[in-house]
Amino acid sequence: MTVPQQSPSSADTLGPARELDAVVVGAGFAGMYMLHRLRALGLSVTVLEAGDGVGGTWYWNRYPGARCDSESYYYSYSFSDELQQEWEWTERYPGQPEIMRYLNHVADRFDLRRDIRFGRRVTEAAFREETGRWELRTDDGDRYSATFFITAVGCLSAANIPQIAGLDTFGGEWYHTGRWPHEGVDLTGKRVGVVGTGSTGIQAIPVIAEQADHLTVFQRTPNYSIPARNGPMEREFQRDVKANYDAIRRQQRASTNGHPFEISDTPALSVPDEERRAVYEAAWERGGLRFRAAFADLLVDKEANDTASEFIRGKIRDIVLDPETAEKLLPRDHPFATKRPPIDTQYFETYNRDNVTLVDVRQSPIEEVTSTGLRTSSAEYELDVIVFATGFDALTGPLLNIDIRGVGGTALREKWSEGPRTYLGLHAAGFPNMFTITGPGSPSVLTNMPTSIEQHVDWIADCIEYLGSHGFDRIEATVEAEDAWVEHVNEAADRTLLPLAGSSWYLGANVPGKPRVFMPYAGGFATYARRCDEVAGNGYEGFVLTM
Ligand code: N01
User: Which of 59, 85, 133, 300 might form a disulfide with 51, Cβ 3.0–4.6 angstroms?
Assistant: First the structure.
């Protein structure tokens, strides 16, 4: 590890910059593994992390009911067989506290903490042409200088807090789920309002309903949700998994979404109605995101998708006893799974409770927060606590919250003013030696994240090793390669139904004023990883490497 030292060119009133080979921003799944890989190459690396601990998204998202929608045995690192053999998962889907225990165990096991600076939010990163190095600043005035600048800032880490008039006059407490207090919030006996019915709201609502005196849910867009069917991890299943991890990991890497299951190759409309219904029933009973894999064409053929969407609407009608409430809960404005499909525990059932009210804020929009609650265009609701489960400025938000400047001082905010432009979602032309782990233009949020993260980290580490061993110290994509990739990302999205979800955060549509561009790469994980390998195999085709 390089001992921090003063750089002659960087001494100023703020003190010396720490000179490093690489700075990684973020200590979640991505930043931790990136540190581990770069250290093994003998590089001096510092990870800068805004939180006071490791965990990234799981460090911040401590809201009631926070749980992963990938199953625990594969929502985990695969890079160390010892790690995957020794760790014991306790539930089918890991809850937030269990993921935090796991990531803290990884940090200790691989001795990562000594190179992570906690409580430092990076505010600026600028490429200096004269030195060929990146200079970074944090909110407490620390400065770092590095050859490589790697962002591991997560895709869903910039909280989207709606600008509702009067919020500052509210006499109660309010929280965003992605910034939940670490000490927890006691909602017992309180009148609670939850705004938002995405994956987060759908997880939190049933748990909050059990604690609160009364819960009012403010729903703008009804959502499809599939039962998670969470439960304890069976010992025998865990033994089987551990005995077969090689095959499981191979299957994940060969898949479309990084999950270890096959997508059916049967088109939904190729089978008789009764058989199709039986397939959906079985998928509903099994639970989880695998429901999407019930037929081959649910994400590419609207008519096929209609059969799944209608099946789920039928389930909502069956579960929710009050027909008027059920009607309000029926998603109709987008095909199933074109927004990220939530999975739930007793979500629709919660509306059968006496202490839960559903308010349709599409019909009667929220007009203001008052000192005592929330007012819509048709009624006023008295509340002690407001919970904003209103999501994130996804994918680009965490990057653009940092003032990143490339060659000639060009701001990334300016370059991406019409939407993100990257080569492979890994790099932006004009920003030499900068890499974005699971950046826009990569499969990222359309996949099981640790699978995508490991693939990116491995690619970046291999690239840096290649540069070093071939005497290069600078890599930058060409604008032509980037343009072609952006076009390919758009084509891949257009081959699916995904762009049909008009209010989706995949499109940036949840943040007022954000450009509407389909941001993740929808061509599938395995196809994408193959392309990355080809690029590397062809001597980093599409990049210019210089000494
Ligand atoms: O955020 P979202 P999320 N007034 O953007 C509503 C991952 N995740 O935090 O649809 C009223 O999906 C908004 O309404 P609309 C997962 O990838 C995973 O729930 O824009 N309502 C919507 O209902 C997920 O997709 C897990 O009309 C407003 C909700 O708030 C992603 O994180 C768990 C509003 C936001 O839904 C984001 O999920 C949790 C306003 N002004 C999250 N603004 C698991 O692993 C927004 N809304 C299980």
Answer: 59
Q: Is 393 in the pocket of ligand 1 (CB under 6 A)?
A: no
In sequence order, the β-bridge partners of residue 159 are 392
Q: 28: which residues sit within 8 A by CB, 6+ positions away?
A: 54, 55, 56, 57, 58, 59, 103, 152, 154
Distance 388 CA to ligand 1 centre (A): 9
Per-domain residue ranges of the chain: 8-158+394-546, 159-222+341-391
> Could you check whether 8-158+394-546 and 159-222+341-391 share the same CATH topology?
yes
**Predicted local confidence at residue 14, as pLDDT:** 57
**What's the pLDDT score for residue 184?**
96
Query: Which segments of 254-366 does DSSP mark as H helices, in order?
Result: 273-286, 302-319, 323-329, 347-350
Residue 102's SS3 state is helix
Q: Is the CB of 389 under 6 A from ligand 1?
A: yes
Torsion angle of C-alpha atoms 58, 101, 86, 453, degrees rounded to 10 = 20
Rounded to an integer, what is the distance from CA 349 to the centroid of its chain?
27
- Please identify, in words, the CATH class of the domain defined by 8-158+394-546: alpha beta
Closest atom of ligand 1 to 70 CA is: 45
Residue 503: predicted pLDDT:
84
C-alpha 160 to ligand 1 mean position (Å): 9
Among the listed residues 213, 215, 214, the one whose alpha carbon sits nearest the alpha carbon of residue 205: 215
Q: Which tokens sit at 459?
A: 């690619």
390 CB less than 6 Å from ligand 1? yes
CATH 3.50.50.60 fits 159-222+341-391, yes or no: yes
The reply to whether ligand 1 has any atom less than 6 angstroms from the CB of 510 is yes
What is the pTM assigned to this prediction?
0.95
Write out pLDDT tens, residues 116-155.
Answer: 999 999 999 999 999 999 999 999 999 999 999 999 999 9
How far is Cα 438 from Cα 52, in angstroms, rounded to an integer? 23
| pLDDT value for 518 | 94
> If you write DSSP's letter for every residue of 48-60 in order, what string do you get?
E-SSSSS-THHHH
Ramachandran area for residue 409 (φ above 0: left; ψ -120 to 50: alpha; else beta): left
Write down the pLDDT at residue 8.
35
Which atom of ligand 1 approaches the CA of 228 most closely? 48
β partners of residue 133: 128
Residue 523 identity: G
What is Dmax (Cα atoms) for the chain?
75
The CA–CA distances, whole Å, from 527 to 31, 55, 137, 436, 485 equal 24, 29, 37, 19, 13
Taking 70 as the pLDDT cut, the residues of the chain under it are 1-14
The whole-angstrom separation of Cα 411 and Cα 138 is 17
